[in-house]
Amino acid sequence: MLHPNHYQVNETWITFQLNDAPVITDNNGDFNVIALMDAASCFILGIGYAPTDSKEMSQMEAERLLKFGYGHKKQYPKELIISNNQVANVLSEEAERRGINVARVPEEQLQVFIGEARESFQEHISKDRVQ
């Protein structure tokens, strides 16, 4: 089973969808929020957006998300882990273009990393809807 203790900071990043339902906006359409997290620290390095009608982020958005991650330590990781449930062909290609190995894993193996982040995001979105 994967665990943060198995990694060094900036060795491996994880990308995953934060929201469980599309984020709906009046002006920009519906989208999903994609997080980029360091596997060792569980620190969110950046977030990107994927329109729900295209199912994955654009090349420009993928480049932007990887640039956010790079900005923290001025280096890319050795590996990027992506959930099997996530459509991320564009992000995978951009990562590989930067020399990052991409691994696909079942989402259940990522819960120890991503569970708290998703829960916090859902609480934040719920508060915004109530107000």
Structure in words:
This protein is of the alpha/beta class. It has one domain (4-130): Ribonuclease H-like superfamily/Ribonuclease H (Nucleotidyltransferase, domain 5, 2-Layer Sandwich). The chain has helices at residues 59-73, 89-97, 111-130; strands at 12-17, 31-38, 44-51, 79-83, 101-105. A five-stranded mixed sheet has the order 3-2-1-4-5, sandwiched between helices. The termini are far apart.
CATH topology: Nucleotidyltransferase, domain 5
Question: How do the SSEs run, as a string of H and E?
Answer: EEEHEHEH
Tally of individual helices:
3
Largest beta-sheet details:
5 strands, mixed
Portion in strands? 15-25%
- Domains (count): 1
CATH top level class name: Alpha Beta
The number of strands is: 5
The CATH superfamily title: Ribonuclease H-like superfamily/Ribonuclease H
What share of residues is helical? 25-40%
| Mean pLDDT level | 91
**Strand order in the largest sheet:** 3-2-1-4-5
Radius of gyration equals 14 Å
Indicate the overall shape. globular
Taking pLDDT < 50 over at least 5 consecutive residues as the criterion, the unreliable ranges are none
CA distance, first residue to last residue: 40 Å
What CATH architecture label applies? 2-Layer Sandwich
Structural class: alpha/beta
Provide a short characterization of the protein structure.
The chain is an alpha/beta fold and 131 residues long. It has helices at residues 59-73, 89-97, 111-130, and strands at residues 12-17, 31-38, 44-51, 79-83, 101-105.
